[in-house]
């Protein structure tokens, strides 16, 4: 299944590149390399990779800046793989468009699983007006949500928040990203808005709001819509 899928690795450490090549090749992915930001932009445009693995510590440009440049036109998944493990770096990377974030040292099996998940979720994105998650159906055109064939009444803000999370299911969306998209830049520090609306949505769409399976909290970072 992976023979035609190119993975672009952006890392200037030879040992990491070799380790990644062994892991990816054994799982039938094609590997392409770039050791700096300039090479990366050329490779991403030339080879149309299915996914990019990005280190933040590059010799010519900060990885977060490169991530922003990539997201101006590259829509496929990007997984950050780096030694930088501060909450600030993680939140910034996710805000700038990273699909996932792993720190070094890493487990090859976990990385491969996350690659598969990111590519699968990207392939599942369709222009269909209906998003279906088991018994929950979100009609993006008519702004109607159904669970077990019954219409769930949502406010306009609740629907906007739910649909934004659902469209990005499997991906962590930070507090700042959600606040900016739903309420605007002037609300970036108002995380209590999110807590209130997430709690309301859980009561309406979760089978057990105290143990949510759809609206999942990523502590200190944001929320993720589960499958």
Present the secondary structure layout:
Layout: E1 6-10, H1 14-26, E2 30-34, H2 37-47, E3 51-54, H3 63-70, E4 78-82, H4 87-95, E5 100-103, H5 108-124, E6 130-133, E7 136-139, E8 144-147, E9 150-152, H6 156-167, E10 172-174, H7 175-182, H8 191-205, E11 215-218, E12 222-225
Helix pairs in contact: 6-8
Overview in brief:
By secondary structure, the chain is α/β, with parallel strands linked by helices.
Radius of gyration over alpha carbons? Answer: 19 Å
Q: What is the end-to-end distance?
A: 22 Å
Average predicted confidence as pLDDT = 90
CATH architecture heading of the largest domain:
3-Layer(aba) Sandwich
Instruction: Find the structural class using helix and strand composition.
Output: alpha/beta
CATH topology of the largest domain: Rossmann fold
State which percent range the strand residues make up. Answer: 15-25%
Low-confidence stretches: none
Helical percentage: 40-55%
The backbone outline, from C-alpha atoms, is globular
Query: Considering the protein shown, what is the CATH homologous superfamily of the largest domain?
Result: Response regulator
Largest sheet: 5 strands, parallel
Number of helices, counting only DSSP H or I runs of 4 residues or more: 8
The total tally of domains equals 2
CATH class of the largest domain: Alpha Beta
Strand ordering within the main sheet: 2-1-3-4-5
Would you report the number of β strands? 12
Name the helix and strand elements from N-terminus to C-terminus, one letter apiece: EHEHEHEHEHEEEEHEHHEE
